[in-house]
Amino acid sequence: MTTATDRPRFENVDYALIDALSGLNPGAWVGSRPLACGEGVLTSSSPADSLPIGQVDRPGAAACEEAIQAAADAFAEWRAVPAPVRGRVVRRIGERLRENQDALGALISLEMGKIYSEGKGEVQSMIDTCDYAAGFSRDLFGLTMASERPGHRMMEQYQPLGPIGVISSFNFPAAVWAWNAMFAAVCGDTVVWKPASAVPLTAIAVQKIAGEVLEEFGMPAGVFTLVAGGPEAGDAIVEDPRVRLVSFTGSTKVGHGVAKKTAARFCRTILELGGNNAAIVTPAMDPTVAIPAIVFGAVGTTGQRCTSTRRILVHESIFDRVADAMVDAYGKLRAGHPFQEGVHYGPLVYESVCDDYRAAVQRAVDEGGRLLCGGEALPELGPCYVAPSIVAANADMPCTHEEMFGPLVYLIPYAGDVTDAIALQNGVRQGLASAIFTEDMREVETFVSAVGSDCGIANVNLGTAGAEVGAAFGGEKDSGFGRELGPEAWKTYMRRQTVTVNYSGKVAMPQGVQFKL
Ligand code: UN1
To answer: Mind listing the pLDDT tens digit for each residue in 2-29?
Structure first.
């Protein structure tokens, strides 16, 4: 049997965490304390070389219960810690991530398959989030309002919510946790994390760092808990009345189930679901900006971001020119091991996704699309590698209305003006990210106006993928609701409380109501 030790080593890659997790690791944790699991063993293999990285002792129902109860117990203590002190804990997590950026980036790349630069970039996004959330720890402000009653004061303030659940996706195996958990922690909430089953080792590495920081500060271990199990661990979080908010990142289909179960118990949700994101390319575009930005949006992370570009809506007058430029750019792309220098994209997450991808390309052709390039498997690189594809299509083809989580992009012509392109863009069920490429200010303003893009994200002269932590992130329609990150996100992780204080020494009802005893 081939083992992790057969793995070829790349120079300039920090293998510290990969090596540290190469044995059998507990899959459930309360802070830095491992829990007894024993529901079988899960092997995490790299899609880059199909070799095992390490194993996970799967948590079962008892470990999930223990983690959730620990989060509930820790909440009682953590909510009483002054918010700026909680912010210091989060800042320290950021420092520890900075120290481990290369090693954690390498683990992310190997376990998930994104190129090393993107792996390190994901950790950067976590570090930025820690800095940002730590700042907010002094900014969890409320309002004071004028009361209509004499000697009364009204205010509203924000209180910690309780334990929150983070159910994260394979494509951002570490950052999605940070985007939610760092804000939640500053707000006084505790966190139960269920990572995607493809990437448990990355979660364990992050959990250990967070757990060690809690220990260093003498804070309760249950502030951060982890259950790296299967879907049943996700269900345990979603259905548990102690969990007051569930932040779910994943497919629209699974998101529907989460929405129903959480709604049934009046639990708050953030749902970051599938995208079917379009880039509009008008005759007024600058090709030196448009083409590279669109190629990254479509092929970066091997097309496995919810923000990846799936549709390119090109004015018919420049369709052939853009098609040629795209095919030419795709010709320069290099697939390969995520650690290899100069590689643009790595493998898809699973071999089965490659089959789905090739089936999706075939379906597009069957529905009348014209394959301009790519679409084939690249077995010489390994079973999870494919060539990204461009299909000349039209907006009536049913496949262009569905998300394919891979590097397949539809090039669709539009006639008329920018409003026609926007209508096509908005004419799908999803509404996450959108982009327009134009130097014409009228087209720009139309795109970002009330009759423009109906998506959560509207970019001008930049691609659909690649969000900064300083702005809110999230979608509309079938792409979900709620926002992570940005200036107002913290309010989602807190409960809003109206406080009225009567210092008049008299009893007074509002609206002049008389009630005398
Ligand atoms: C980005 O494009 O920078 O799962 C962020 C995802 C999103 C994050 C994308 N939650 O792809």
So the answer is: 556 678 899 999 999 999 999 999 999 9
Residue 57's H or E segment, with its range, is: strand 52-57
Task: Give distance in angstroms: CA of 227 to centre of ligand 1.
Answer: 22
pLDDT value of position 1: 47
Sequence-ordered list of residues with C-beta below 8 angstroms from that of 450, at least 6 positions apart, any chain: none
How many angstroms separate the CA atoms of 99 and 297, rounded?
A: 29
Q: Dihedrals φ, ψ of 66, to 5°?
A: -65, -40
466 lines ligand 1 (CB under 6 A): yes
Task: Work out whether strand 245-249 and strand 33-34 pair parallel, antiparallel, or are unpaired.
Answer: unpaired
What is the chain's Cα-based Rg?
25
- 12: DSSP letter: T
User: Is the pLDDT score of 316 beyond 50?
Assistant: yes
- Tell me, what's the pLDDT at 6? 78
Number of Cα atoms under 13 Å in the Cβ half of residue 22: 12
Ligand 1 close to Cβ of residue 171 (< 6 A): yes
CA 479 centroid distance within chain? 12
Ligand 1 atom nearest to CA at 179:
10
Out of 272, 310, 481, mutate this one to test ligand 1's pocket (max ligand atoms within 8 Å of CB): namely: 272
Residue type, 149: R
169-228 pLDDT tens trace: 999 999 999 999 999 999 999 999 999 999 999 999 999 999 999 999 999 999 999 999
Q: How far is the CA of 81 from the centre of ligand 1 (A)?
A: 32
Contact residues for 204 (Cβ-Cβ < 8 A; gap 6+): 21, 25, 26, 27, 29, 56, 226, 228
Query: Is 398 exposed, middle or buried, given 0-12, 13-18 or 19+ CB atoms closer than 10 A?
Result: exposed
With H, G, I as helix, E, B as strand and everything else as coil, classify residue 357: helix
Which residue, by CA, sits nearest to atom 3 of ligand 1?
A: 466
Q: How far, in Å, from the CA of 377 to the mean position of ligand 1?
A: 25
- The residues assigned a catalytic role are 272, 306
CA distances 467 to 125, 132, 159, Å, are 9, 15, 28
Query: How many Cβ atoms sit within 10 Å of the Cβ of residue 409?
Result: 29
pLDDT tens, residue by residue, 413-443: 999 999 999 999 999 999 999 999 999 999 9
Query: How many residues in total does the chain contain?
Result: 517
